[in-house]
TrEMBL record:
SUPFAM superfamilies in the cross-refs: Carbohydrate phosphatase
Residues noted as binding Mg(2+) in the record, renumbered to the chain: 77, 140, 142-143, 296
Alphabetized Gene3D superfamilies for the sequence: 3.40.190.80, Fructose-1,6-Bisphosphatase, subunit A, domain 1
Protein name: 3'(2'),5'-bisphosphate nucleotidase
Annotated signal sequence range: none
Species of origin: Spathaspora passalidarum (strain NRRL Y-27907 / 11-Y1)
Gene Ontology biological process terms in this record: hyperosmotic salinity response; inositol phosphate metabolic process; methionine biosynthetic process; phosphatidylinositol phosphate biosynthetic process; sulfate assimilation; tRNA decay
Length: 351
């Protein structure tokens, strides 16, 4: 399908502008965390920067969607109830005002928020329950909270879902260098925008540039096709509470993978995979009862498929985004098509 005439052209442009605006805002907060940490003024338990970022980002993106697609529902992670009586409201309003001013040329397309009432209303557009029919959006305003608070990786993730399948995904990665070699070696521009449209492909462009760049002027990305264990690279989370690093170590051993894994918070993992900088994403469950949230995986899911990869649960079955706000399956495994089946086999062997 042509890159400029696809059926989701308007959706992609609006999603991109909204994610870019939210990314500028969250990047400011992320940079301020790093400064506060260096000066010793941010205590470890102070979650306020991420709270401010979560609400502001969700308000901006939801507002853009509702303005352009008033009939669409949104499954958003945050709920304005947690904002009531919060001392952070004036900070949220100030930050939103500031980023709107800096990107005022987007107002024609994605509007602007003027007061607290509009902000809370917009956040609560995210209350959809999702489901198997019709279309809705899934938004994670800051994915990788823990990474964000460490000054590491996080992402603004937006996806469009139709009849349980993801058809469009946009991920803003404010702290992600273009090239990741290993946990401590990287290079290139910091700040990446990763987009995918069903039937069109997956694309990379620099995040902190102005406006919407048509896909044919972005860089098309694809996964590698290697299955040679000595060349395979695994990407996995940082938080041991979110995936079982010990199970993952066993799987890597069965597959004969010796290259150290790349550890990254948030859906930037999918971006690194889709751009061929790693081959396998392992997210093995730590608990029998936890169910993944759809906003944690929707945008990354289409990015992988459109770059030639495959995604499944621990059984190897595709993820079903039509089962409400959570997935019904356990774990997430992604890989290039050449290795996917053997990874699932190794997973089954270990579990
Ligand atoms: N026990 C658990 N197992 C798997 N994922 C979990 C989890 N507890 C929380 N999470 C999710 O893990 C996400 C981050 O993933 P990662 O570890 O890959 O960075 C969190 O998103 P948020 O940070 O948006 O809340 C959260 O939704
Ligand atoms: Mg998340
Ligand atoms: Mg989140
Ligand atoms: Mg969360």
């Amino acid at each position: 399908m042509a890159t400029s005439t696809h059926p989701y052209a308007k959706e992609l442009e609006i999603a991109t502008l909204a994610v870019k605006r939210a990314s500028i805002l969250t990047k400011k907060l992320s940079d301020s965390i790093v400064t506060l940490q260096q000066s010793g003024t941010l205590t470890k338990d102070d979650k306020s920067p991420v709270t401010v970022g979560d609400f502001a980002s969700q308000a901006i993106v939801n507002h853009a969607i509702k303005l352009n697609f008033p009939n669409d529902e949104i499954v958003g992670e945050e709920d304005s109830q947690d904002l009531q009586d919060s001392p952070l409201t004036s900070q949220i309003l100030d930050l939103i005002n500031q980023v709107q001013q800096e990107t005022s040329e987007y107002d024609d397309k994605i509007g602007k928020l003027s007061n607290l009432k509009e902000i809370t209303t917009s956040i609560d557009f995210g209350d959809s329950q999702g489901g198997s029919t019709g279309r809705f959006w899934a938004l994670d305003p800051i994915d990788g909270t823990k990474g964000f608070l460490r000054g590491d990786q996080f992402a603004v993730c937006l996806a469009l879902i139709e009849n349980g399948k993801v058809v469009l995904g946009v991920i803003g990665c404010p702290n992600l260098p273009q090239i990741i070699h290993s946990n401590d070696k990287h290079e290139g521009i910091v700040g990446g925008l990763y987009s995918a449209v069903k039937g069109v492909g997956s694309y990379y462009s620099a995040l902190f540039t102005k406006g919407f760049t048509p896909l044919d002027q972005q860089q098309k990305i694809s996964m590698k096709s290697t299955s040679n264990p000595s060349e395979l690279k695994v990407v996995e989370g940082v938080e041991k509470g979110h995936s079982s690093h010990s199970t993952q170590a066993q799987i890597k051993q069965i597959l004969g993978i010796t290259t150290p894994a790349i550890n990254l918070d948030s859906q930037v993992k999918y971006c690194v995979l889709a751009s061929g900088q790693s081959d396998i994403y392992l997210r093995l469950p730590v608990s029998d009862t936890y169910r993944e949230k759809i906003w944690d995986h929707a945008a990354g899911n289409i990015l992988i498929y459109e770059s030639g990869g495959q995604v499944g649960d621990i059984e190897g079955n595709p993820l079903n985004f039509g089962t409400g706000r959570t997935l019904q399956s356990k774990g997430v495994i992604a890989g290039n098509k050449q290795v996917f089946d053997s990874v699932i086999k190794a997973v089954q062997q270990v579990l």
